[in-house]
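Our consortium's second objective concerns turning raw sequence data into structural hypotheses that experimental partners can test. To show how far this objective has progressed, the report includes one record in full. It was chosen at random from the queue rather than selected for favorable results. The single chain below, 210 residues long, was entered without modification.
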Amino acid sequence: MKITKQELIDGLATLDPTNDAHWTEDGQPTLEVLQDAVFDDTVTREDIAEHANGFSREIAAEAIAEADAEQEAAKQALLTAPDVEGMAPLGAEDPIGSEPSEGSQEDYEAAVLKAKQALEDHDLAIRKAKIKRDELVATVDRAIKARDALYPPRKQAEVIQDWLASEARKRQERSEMMMMVRAPKSPLDASMERRTGYGGGRKHVPLLAG
């Protein structure tokens, strides 16, 4: 039984553009690898040309990148930065200063304690932020699973299918344009061109005086 278009596309989607064994030197799918992927050793290059004309290693890489980008964009849209309370802002006042200045030992001891306290407060805020972030990541994962259950993200095979459909539309448009250019003239148009000298206008024939 001849392989269907969908079966072939699903097989092409399993090819890894980073694996040299999956491709020929000129970027075409390795036939044996594709045959193994679809469990059909009768698949030929003619089948690929019929159902996925123009498909190559470069197209496969673009399809994977596009599918990954869409999923990552969806995840980032759901992920919001945690609102961390109590975290000391960057550039907070340095209790020591950039240069040592006159002061008693007690002053410096107090400054050390103040700096240590600021560090502990900051570390605590970071730990709280990490806990909050882990909670948000878990929430995002649950939201993604729920969304994908209702609206599954596009797979690599679907991206390839869209590309093939786009290429088919382009070929159809080019074919229609060529048909319009080469379309034969109607008898009326041909007659008018002969009588007017191919668009040059009718010759003026002076009337004879009676």
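The partners drew two points from this record. The helical segments are 5-12, 31-38, 45-51, 57-78, 105-150, 156-182, 187-196. The longest helix spans residues 105-150. Both points have been shared with the crystallography group to help prioritize constructs.
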